Structure formats: structure tokens, C-alpha cells
Protein 1
Amino acid sequence: MPSLLGDVCEKIRSKNAGPYWITVDIFCGGSKRFNTVINALQNEQIAECLQLPVAELRRFDMPELFAIKVSFARPIVQGSAGDRDMHGAQYAVLIAQLALE
Amino acid sequence: MTTRVLVPSGVLGLGFSERALAQAMQLKPDIICIDGGSTDSGPAYLGTGTTKYSRAVCKAEWKLLMRARHALGIPLVISSCGTCGTDSMVDWMFALTREIATELGQHPKVVSLYTEQILSQVQNAFKTQRIQILEPEVPLSENIIKQCSHIVALAGREQITAALNCGADIVLAGRATDTAALCALPIANGEHEAAAWHGAKIAECGAFCSTNPSSGVVMLSVDQQGFTIQAIADDAFCTPHSVSAHMLYENANPHQLVEPGGTLDASNATYTAIDRHTVRVEGSRWETAKQYTVKLEGARSRGFQTTILALIRDPHYVKNVHLWADKLRAFLVDQLQTRLDIAPDQYSLEFRIIGSNATFGALETKTEGATEVGVLGIVTSSTQALSDDIMRFANPFVLHYPLTVDEPMPSFAFPYSPAETSRGETFEFCLNHVMRIDDPMQVFKLTQEVL
């Protein structure tokens, strides 16, 4: 069984970064887990679960925080017709479900 | 020297520890700053020019801060008054301030900073190419600008400083960047500019940069080399990790922060623990922009909504709820056209299945296994009367629509009466742009009054 990102990491949160962006912060909680995650977590996986082209993701690996940040333009502008999550806060749950091979 | 900024919490209305406020007052702050708003709760507040937070809670908290300000004899600043920072919300905050001043027998000098924009002037700026698009690109036209119910420009530290320089005891600022109020006095005092911006970003949510966010109160101390951030409550601790992690919060780029007059670069900053409550930060850089710009926020109406909520517990219908909702929607669209002559282009109608995929829609990977589901119907059209009438027409079908013609008519659970709810006007954000201005005060206005 591959482990899930959410089980490996200490905390995963997501939030609006203004009305036009979502940003996801993945806190791995230590260098060993950080190294495991940066090697295993593929941008293609993240893009697939968000149904976005991989080129639209902006990823920042931050070894000093054992953290990974992934930002992307909101598929639907915050609060516009069809938006389901005003604060973008539940995207973290989707990301947490990703399997690490 | 050192300039100390007392930040009681991330936003007025969210609550903070009164004991921690009293403790912070002992540390000789030079100014008290609190934020009053954000776009984070959506476009309705800017669209209508109203506040998200209760007047009663804002009054109770503002009264504590006005007392603290009076006792210390230092300025008190609130930025982004009333969630959206429109002129109406600056005036709302002014009325609240006057009411409290009367109750406390205070006579502060209140300076109001107005940041709302005149639509024709924004149209003019657009025509003369003084408006630049940001990423992601959203279309803009003179017509879209005209459709906005409100447009605000985000003030930076220059406009807050101009308000303080009027000799303000209290500054009530319209929309401003989260950091502007916090870094204004340190920079005016000649402290390290990058440290002031970086410290302001770390402190802008109050104790969110600590281990105990709900305690609220932090002290930001900026000097000529860097800044220290201190969580004040006994049970709130700042660590290099909790502080540096806050650079990531609500920020698409974890190293940079773009402000009206330049950009903060925190990529080489160092974070050092001083004690359990306090972290020292140095090494951030500030790059002054060649052109001064202010970010614009605007919201325009997208019609009027009516909703309905039905609960389904019947296992047969729970299992087939998506098929049921699709068939129901198609039936209603057909009936509205044939019986009421309401064409599909006059409204939008959707059903979201709570308990299945209401949060993620097409992105959801697990849609099976619910015990019960909620069916949330949303109709949007150009008038409240039309949306209400469409949902009244839909009501008996949402209650009784059978999955197939061969089965007995079901009845589902409506949790209240009437099942349909008029939601009023709905709005959307429609500006992701900055406006070039020659003088920071060009599109802002100050007024002052001694109460």
C-alpha cells in the first residue's frame, strides 16, 4: 500500500492568496520526511488531482521549513458563480489524499 | 531607536486576550494597529459596502482599544475598515468611534482615510493605459468598470503615514494592504525599511505567527537592523518555525511580497529564537519600485439568487442521487420553458449534492457511501422576483420527483418552511489590476475631526 501524503506530513493547509489564487502549504515536519516527500511527490500528480495543466502550478520546496508550497490560479474566481469553497480551505484535503509511491 | 507596534489580533471582531493586551501595554508600544478587513470572505462585502463582523463585537473590541490608546497616549490605527474598506465602512467605523468616545468621555482627533475610487476616474485611467493587469489575467473594459458597485484602491504605508502626520489619535483607514498600517510608523521613524515590511507581514494576523493563534496579541519591535516579534500571552510562543512559516500564509510566493512602493524579498532572512516568546529576524531586503502603483479591488453584481435545501435519507434515492438530480434539473428546465415561457438563458440552475461531492464537484474522487445527502438547489437570474418564482415552481418537484415513472411518488425532508430562501444580490470580483499614480495621495482623501 502506498502511503498517503496526509499521513506522512505533519500538516497540510490551503487558503486563498487573494481572490485569484489558491496556495497549499505542505509541512512535512522534519528533514527525513521532507526528503521523502520532495522525491516522491510529482507535480503531475498534483496537477491531475486538480485537473489543471502542470505548467500552471508554482511549486516552492523550502528545506529550511521542511515545507513545500504549491500555488495555482483559481479555476473559478473566489465567490463567482460555481465556486464551491469561498476560502479555498478544503483543497488541502484533496492534496492530502495523494499517494506517495 | 526601536519602534514598537502593538497588534491586538488579526482582525477587529475575531477576539483577543484582554489579559495579554494589558501585558503588552506594559511594554511601552508606540502605536496600536489592527486590521479590519480582507477579501477572504468573498465579494459580497465589497459588492454591498458592508461588514462581515457583528457591530456589537466590533464595538466591544474597539472600546478596549480606544481605552488602551487613551491610557498610553499613542495613536490607534485600523485599516480596511468594515471588511471591504469602502467609504461607507469608514463612516460606519467613524460612527462607532464617536459613540464610544461619548461613552468614555474621550475627545480624540480622528483622521479618516478614504480609499474608494470614482468609477469614471478608473475608466479614465483605463483609457489612458494607467491600469496594468496582474496574473492571472482577467478581462477588463470600461463597461466592466461601470458595472462595479464599488472599487477600492489599496493604500500603502505612505497614505497611513500621511494620516498619522495630521496629528491623529485615531486613524480609520479604508482598504489598505495587510501590512501598510503596521510598517508605517517604523519606516517614518527611520527604522530598517525591509525589516518593517517583513515584520508587518509576520504580525498582520496577530498571534497566527505563534503557537496559540487565538490569544491574538503580539508586539512587533522594529529597529535599524531588523525586527523582533513577541507573542504576549503566557501560553503563546513564537519559534523560528512558527514565525518563518507565516511568510507562506495567504501568499502565493513564500519569499516575496509586492506592495505599492516596492517589493519585500525575505528569501535570505534569518530567524533566531531569543526566548520562548520572542524571535529575532534580520536579513530581509526591500526593493523600491520604479513606478508607484496601487492595487484595485472591484465587485459587480451577477444577479439575484434563491436556494432550496432538501434532505434525502431513502437509501434507494441516496444511492442514485446524482442521476435523480440530473433528471430533475432537465425536467425543470423543460417545464420552465414549455409551461412558463422562461428560457434557459434567463437563469442558471444547479443542484449540489451535500454528502457526495458538493465541496469538490468534478475533482471529488469518493462519491459513494453516504447515509444521507443534502440537495442544495441554487438558481441565479437577473431579478430576485424571477429567481424566487423559479424556485417556488421547482419546490414541489424537489420534494416529490420520482427517479422513474414506475415507482411511487417519494417525499423527501425539507428542514424548514419555506424551503426556498431568497439570498439577495450576488457579486463577483472583477479586477486583478494595479493603477499607476504619480503621487501616493493622488487617489486618496483625508478628513479630520476632533470628537
Protein 2
Amino acid sequence: MNVELADLTRRFGRTRAVDAVSLRAGPGVFGLLGPNGAGKTSLLRMMATVLTPTSGRMRLLGRDPGAFPQRREIRRRLGYLPQNLGYYPGFTVFEFVEYFALLKEMPPGQVSRAVAAAVERVGLGDRARAKLRTLSGGMLRRAGIAQAIVNDPELLLLDEPTAGLDPEQRVAFRALLREVGQRAAVVVSTHLVEDVGAVCAEVALMDAGRIVFHGTPAELTARGEDSGAAGDAPLERGYSAVLSASRTAAVARS
Amino acid sequence: MKDEVDLDRVWLGVAAEVWRRRPGPVERAVGRALRSPGLARALLKTPSLLLGWVIASAVVVSVGWAATLTTGTPYVPLLAPAVAGAGIAYAYGPGIDPAWELAASMAVSDRMVLLVRALAVFGLNAALGLAASAASGTAAALTFGWLVPMAAVCTLALAAATVSRSANVGVAAGLAGWALVVMGGWSATGSLVAAVTVTSLMVPYLLFAAVCGAVAWYATRIPRRTT
């Protein structure tokens, strides 16, 4: 298993952003769905080893991120696209991706070629020498994706990766995800249900820090059948039905 | 076909060669010294080592040097710790480094980046202060005169910045702490520069720097166990 989480919890003051989440994910594309504030980003940040869990256990790529040498090995094999991608405006696309390839401790002799390949894979070959400050939001997002895949990661974590991408770019991006997902675990956090339906083999739905559904997109779709839940597409109706049921149950418990 | 050329591979080789950035001599030397090209690149991207900041630091110290020459009061030893403390607080962290979150997920540890950057900023400011002090004729007792208080102010700024995860808080703590010590020394002895000339303060400065360094070290740790 590339990702093993057991009762993972993260508190910010009195708020439980992530509440006793248990998950296992192997190679393939795993979708993390949920409304804003559900805890998706906090969960992804913990998996990216940027945020420390308050409690619970986590193993990534068979290693314990709490131990420095193992955390370093995980990070060498990790690709991460944060929700808010910070960037250096004066860097070119190539320099930006190269910078993170170096920080991932890729062998220096392989860096240039790997960076060129990553830049081409996200369709930014014609803007490789353009300064980041001159790029559109969608292009910046693609530069962020390029740095995430430059080391051919075994675990790829993407937080809202399709934000700012136009429909054509989203289709190309989904193809890229399918390709990477053949040999790596790809965890995609999104609130766009159609992205999940198109590429994910498994999906978890989060609400209020908890996982309220875990299954396949087809199973999520089935939850919406005859439920009368809101939504324009079957998967959206499944999403709404699960959320509605979970919130009703939470109110009943309290 | 047997002799078919893989044009994609060829293109990637060409693109890598055409697009790549050639590191300058400083970056190459730093990379060799640190045995990490990534750490070298991270060091050269230190916000408080960028040209504008270095020029601003040099201007402040130069003003201190000019004031020292004209008034006879050694302002350089009073200014240098404040400038260095601000520089260290602005060396690394959320809100300072645009791609901090991404950098924090990298194999080159962010603690190592912080350490290397903090040492570089301290070294640069020490060199600026030494040059200004020497030029203004106050080079005597330099080490015990202000390098030790500067270390204390820098570690205070670093500790406050890492604990609060805010460079501005780090700067405020460093400047406020130093101002308190200078004003306290002034009111107690009547000398504005008592904070850097009273030798009995040096051991407390060193102890304080050690405590602040330990706090910064603790604040940047990742717990070994999560349960």
C-alpha cells in the first residue's frame, strides 16, 4: 500500500479539521471529494508531510514519516501540488520545475532531462523559458503539476489540480493522471465531481473532517438513485445524497 | 524499422540543453561546499540576501558609520544587531518564501534551509558591521562589543519567527528586545552604548542566544511519533 492512514486526526484549537480518518490506497487514482472546509486540504497536507497529525498513525510508501531518514525517502518519491501554489515571479517555467527537482534531491545529471520531460507533459514546452509572472492562472497550475511529476513520484498528491484549467486542458490532465496512476498512487482532492467520475477508480467523500463515504464512483452514483437529491449528473446526485444523509445522521446524534 | 530515431527522446535532450539555466560561479561553489545543488539554489533565493535587501542593510550600516564619525558615538554596534535580526526573521518561512509550503514537502529539509540561510544572513551582516566598525575606528573589542549581542538578537528574532510562523513577529521581537536592552543600559549607566560595552552582559547574552536557539530548534521539529 502506498498510503495507510489509521485514525488520523488533526486539530486546530478546538476544531477537528481531520477527525479519525482511516484510509488505504495503492496504485491508481484516488479521489477525495467534499465541500469547502471538509478537511481535504488538511488531510493532503499531512500526507505531504507538511502538516503534523495531532494523533493517529500514518505510513506512506511503506515508511514512517515521523522518522527523519524515512521522511526524507518519502519526500524524494513524493509529488505534491498545494492548493495555493506559491511561485517565484522571476523564475522561468524551466527554472521553477528545476528548483524543485533539485530540492527533491534528484541526481543532478538527470535533472535537466526530467524537467524538460515534465514541462512537455503538461503542454508548456512553448513557454518553458517564459517568466512565471507572464503566465495565466491555468499555465501556472500546469507548471505546478510539472514540478509535482518531475521526479516520477510513487505518491502524487494534488490539491484542486484542475482549478483554472480550461476544458481542453482538463481532458489532457485527466489522461496524464490515468498514465501516472498506472504505477503510482495518485490522490486528487477536488470539489469537482466530474473530475472524479472521469479518472478515479476509488473515491472518498469527506464532510466535517470525517470520511462519510468510501467506494467506487459507481457506488457513489448508486447512492443518488431514487434519492431525490440535488444535482445535474448522476454522480452529483450521489454526492448530494451521501452528504445529506451524513448531515442528517450527525444532527440526530447531537 | 531498425534505424528509426526516437524523435521524442532527441527533442527532450535538445530541449533540456536549450532551456536549462547555467548556474553561476557562486551557486556552483556553494553547491560544492554544501554538497547539495538544491540547498545552494535555496540559499541564493533567501529573501534577505537578495540584492535590494543587501543594499538596504549596507545603507543602514553606512548611515550608522557616518553618524559615528560625525558624533563620536559608536552607532554601528547598535544598528548592526537590529539589521541582522530583521534579516534573519525574513530569511525563510510562510509568507516570506512564496513557495514555502511546496519547499516544506521537499527532501532537502526546511530546517536545513533555515539553518543555512540564517547563518548566511548572520555572516553577511557581521561582515558589513565589521567593515563599518573598522572604518569608523571602533574596531576594538569587536567580538565582545557587538557580535555577541547580535547573536542574541538574531536568535531571538529567529525563535519568535519560527514559533509564531511570522517574520513580522520575529522582526518585532528582535527590534523590541534590542531596544529594551539598549534603553535599559542607557538609563542604568548614562551611556547609550552600554549594551555593547558592559562586559558583564556577555555571558547573559550567550545564555539567552542558546535558549532562543533551542526554542527555534524545537519549533521547527517534526514529532517522531504521531500517537
Protein 3
Amino acid sequence: MPVTFFVPGYLRAYTAGAGKVTIPRAPSDVGAALAALCDLHPGVRDRVLNERGEVRQHVNVFVGNESIRFTGGLGTPVAEGSEIWIVPAVSGG
Amino acid sequence: MEPRHVSVKNGDAALLVGTMKGAFLLRSDRSRRRWDAGGPYFAGTPVYALAFDGRSGRRRVWAGTSSEHWGPGLASSDDFGRTWTNPKEVPIKFPADTDASVKRIWQIRPGRAGEADTLYVGVEPAALFESRDAGKQWSLVRGLWDHPHRPMWQPGGGGLCLHTILPDPVHLRRLFVAISTGGVYRSDDGGATWRASNKGVRADFLPDKDPEFGQCVHKIVMHPSRPERLFLQNHWGLYRSEDGGDSWQDIANGVPSDFGFAMAMHPHDADTVYILPLESDEFRVTPEQKLRVYRTRDGGRSWEALTRGLPQKGALETVLRDAMDTDRMNPAGVYFGTRSGKVFGSTNGGAAWTCVMDGLPPVVCVKAAVVGEAPGAGAGPRSGARAGTAKRPAAVQPRATARPRATAKPRATAKPRAAAKPGGRSRTARGAAAGKR
């Protein structure tokens, strides 16, 4: 089963406009899934991850309804058929 | 939001305005009476750094964006904002071995006129990047990053930022940078090695008031005709160096406060500098609720208030370190932007001011240029013009009606507010806050 990313509006400039990107081969964890997404759409990488490979402070990644901040970060396991959401944090003024 | 665009031609005056929610590009003819504004570009994203590169016939605008969500970006436009580069890979990145990541781009500085493909960028955390191919590829200046002082630099209120870069136009291997809080550093070998250049600059917020480094320098400026002389606006303190930063002398003579951020060099006179004093580090607004630019025309021996056309009642304004600049026309244009979203301009060296634009998000960066002229080239004079009101971008029209500010009583040669005591520490606001610093 594939894994599906839901991409916010800002990042669609780097996914050829797609708000939904499917990774055909099931990755083991969120980090591997993100790597696969960035292989397909390289512009996503520097916007979601910093130079240290960390998810940017004000970007949230959810697997289903669970934020990966509380489930093991990029090491969070990904089940086949998972939906992964990239969401800008509700912050700023 | 779709931005409004304006077009420029050679000889136009250009004003680049970075705000907390995007960038605006303004143009005027040489009279600088009326300004047309394009933007907002990068709507919603802070733009702390803008630069105009007119070398080699370019009309290139550079923008450093700092999205709170998606990180920093560096883009350029050769058509005054209609199209921007948007590289998939962000070009300013720390190498993996540094274990650092760029938080914000603070400064974009084209290199010397004779090095048309050289550009510098200053970032937070404090570091210098350099490009030798007109911005295609960038590399970290290792000599500064590996400096033994670096681990001891501390962030100021705006973060640990390298915010000013001054390539010496005569000594071609010499380069100055200013870091908050690290101080001024100078390289004499093209960036390979650096040494602190802070002798005489006080650090009132440290137990040791005269450290080798660690000063919170807010801005340094230099005139290309006299590069051994520099002026410095410190976190408390105004200074001049006559020896390329080897030593600094206090020049806070007759200013209402020596706290402030912004400082700009006159384009044609190495004795003339503009500052915008703020009351104190605890109350970072214009003293006495008066918006006053201060100008020295004698290298800092005295300062005069420039008030004509600027609000002199109820003005609790803040002007940040990169929000003041001069153009290269004659008479010189002087411009600054406020955190309350106003841009003021003068087309006669500061004698009179008008509000160029109002109703903007907080202004963090103002850069002035003449289209079609490389830095160092002259500009045709047209005296007697005054700054005027910008035609606002349609997208932001409803927010405010830009119109000239009420003209204040002319006061071209204001007397200094207070005489400096020996040692140059006679600022009223400074004295009031001294016990708390």
C-alpha cells in the first residue's frame, strides 16, 4: 500500500501544484517517507528540514492524527496506507 | 495575493523596502517627487535583507526572506520584481560539519565595483557567506566561522546576527563585518583571517566595559573615498575610527541619546553621517516623542536635528538597523522606514522630509539605488526636488492613504540638545537608564 503526503499551499510551488503526493513504496518511518517525497520533489527538502536534517521548528508533521513530535520524530514508524500531513504551525503575528 | 508591479528605466531612483510581511519595490524619476510602489513580494514573509546590484549593467534586486515556517530563502529578480528566482535548494546553507542551520538572512551586500560577480551575505547565527559567481553558488567564509571568539559571541535582542558587511574599496583584501553581539571584525586577507576591531567601543551590558570583543554593534558605515574612517552606532555609543577600526573615539556630542540602530553615510561627503537616536534600550522609541534624524557634517564633532516634515508630537517611532539609506543622487536622497510602517524620504540631504509611503507592515530594511548605475558612479544632479507620496500597490491601497506628512516648522540647523561632557558620556536618556544597565 502506498503512503500519501498532504502538502500545504506554500509547498505546492515545489510539488508542481500537487496538494497530495503518493509514495508508491512503503517507507519504514517518517524520515524515509520524507526522503522519498524530497526525491520526487527536491524543493520540499529545504523548506521542511533544516541543514541538520531536523524538521523546522514551526512545521508540524502528522501521521494520521498524531504529531511526530510525540511519537518518535522522524523515526516514527509508518504503516502501509498511512496519510502524512505537513502543516505549518499556528504561530506568528 | 498578487503583487502590483512597476517598471524601471535607467536613471530612475529605486527604493527597496523590506517589511515583516513582504517586500515593496518603489521607483521614481530623478526628481523623486512621486513614487510608484510594487508589491507586496513574498507576501506574509519577513524580508530583512534587500540589495540592488547595478554592476555590469545589471538591474538585479536581491531579497533575503525569513519565513518563520519554511526557513530562509534567497531570491533575485532582474525585472524589478515581476519574476524571482526560486531555487529548489536554498543557496545559503551551513555545511554539515558545522552542525548549524541558517535562521535568518540579515544582509546582502554586492562586492566591490571591480568585482562584479562577488556578493556577500550575513546571516543568523552570525556567519558570512560569499559568492564569486554572481550568486549561483555560495560558500561559508570559514576564517570567520572558525574564529576562536565565535563560541563566545552572544545573541542580542534580534538574535546572534552578522548584519553589516563593508568591503574596503581601496584595500581590496580588506573586509569589515559587524556582529550583534560580537562587535566589529576586520580581515586584511580576503576573509582568511579576522581580528576583533573594537578598541574604545564600550560594552555597557557586560561586567568588563571594554572587552576585546562582545560589543553589541548595531551598524557601521564607511565612505568609499575615505575607507580608513568608519562610523559606528553601538548599543549605547556613537564612535568614529580614523585608522580602519584599530581604535574608536566617542563622537556622541550633542545627541539626545546615543542609543539607536540606524546609521547612514552621505554618498558624496565623508564627513556627513545620519543617525536616528532612540531613547534607551529599555524604551526603544524616538526621544521626547519627536521623530528626528540627526546629522553630522563634521565627522561627528557636532550633530544637528533634522525635523522639517517629520512628526514632532506623539511620535513613538522605532527605526531599525538596516532601515536607513542614502541614494547617490545630488542632492543626496536620504530614506528611512519605521516599525509603524512609514517610509520617509528627503531629496535634499535631510533638510526637509516627506512621507513616501504609509500603512506598511513594520519596516525592517530600506535600500536606495539609482537604476543603471554601479556603486561608485556619479549621478546627475537635479536640485530642488522633494520627496513625494507613493502610488500604493493596489493590493494594499485600502489600508491607508499615503499622503505627504504635515510639514513641521523648518528647523534646518537645530542646536545640539546637550553638550558632551569630557569623555563623551552626557546623554540624557543614557544617564536615566544607567543604573539599570
